[in-house]
């Protein structure tokens, strides 16, 4: 019986925790990839007519890349908290595993949403800046608010990752 569950610590709990790691990494990097690709298309289109503005307008790509770092940070923190079974008994609780799943989902899905926002704003913004350079500050402000969505997910994920229940 000790192979299955001990006081709220089922054998499947690490699977749920690792699923949280996967959510954080995959979805945050998916948002970063989308944001990079979409903003990169705008930079390429704008750069044909105004190549001198390419380096100035690379900011959306950098901001999208930060979202992947958020996912990496949460994944490493969660991985460090997941413990392997000892002598056939799981010491990683269901409560902790679901807290880690929620942390991964908070970081990953907010990173995905932020990446989509950064990509769309970056694409339209750099094309608009190519036509009217006075729009640059407005584009940066909108990008900052879009990046904040991913930061909110990171903060919530860090708080959730600290919620634990230890099996004795």
From TrEMBL:
InterPro entries: ATPase_proteolipid_c-like_dom (IPR002379), ATPase_proteolipid_csu (IPR000245), ATPase_proteolipid_su_C_euk (IPR011555), F/V-ATP_Csub_sf (IPR035921). GO terms for molecular function: proton-transporting ATPase activity, rotational mechanism. CDD domains: ATP-synt_Vo_c_ATP6C_rpt1, ATP-synt_Vo_c_ATP6C_rpt2. Keywords: Hydrogen ion transport, Ion transport, Membrane, Transmembrane, Transmembrane helix, Transport, Vacuole. SUPFAM superfamilies: F1F0 ATP synthase subunit C. Pfam families: ATP-synt_C. Residues 20-78, 101-160 form the V-ATPase proteolipid subunit C-like domain. It is found in: Membrane; Vacuole membrane. It is a multi-pass membrane protein. It comes from the Eukaryota. The chain crosses the membrane at residues 12-37, 58-82, 102-123, 135-160. Belongs to the V-ATPase proteolipid subunit family. PANTHER family: V-TYPE PROTON ATPASE PROTEOLIPID SUBUNIT (PTHR10263). This is V-type proton ATPase proteolipid subunit. It comes from Ectocarpus siliculosus (Brown alga). The lineage of its organism: Eukaryota, Sar, Stramenopiles, Ochrophyta, PX clade.
């Amino acid at each position: 019986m000790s192979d299955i569950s001990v006081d709220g610590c089922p054998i499947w709990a690490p699977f749920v925790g690792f699923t949280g790691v996967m959510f954080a990494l995959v979805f945050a990097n998916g948002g970063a990839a989308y944001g990079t690709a979409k903003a990169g298309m705008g930079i390429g289109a704008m750069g044909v007519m105004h190549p001198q503005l390419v380096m100035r307008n690379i900011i959306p790509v950098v901001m999208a890349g930060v979202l992947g770092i958020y996912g990496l940070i949460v994944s490493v923190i969660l991985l460090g908290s997941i413990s392997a079974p000892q002598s056939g008994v799981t010491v990683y609780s269901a409560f902790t595993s679901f807290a880690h799943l929620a942390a991964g989902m908070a970081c990953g899905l907010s990173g995905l949403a932020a990446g989509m926002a950064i990509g769309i704003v970056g694409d339209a913004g750099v094309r608009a800046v190519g036509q009217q350079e006075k729009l640059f500050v407005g584009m940066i402000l909108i990008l900052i608010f879009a990046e904040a969505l991913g930061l909110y997910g990171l903060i919530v994920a860090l708080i959730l990752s600290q919620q634990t229940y230890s099996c004795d």
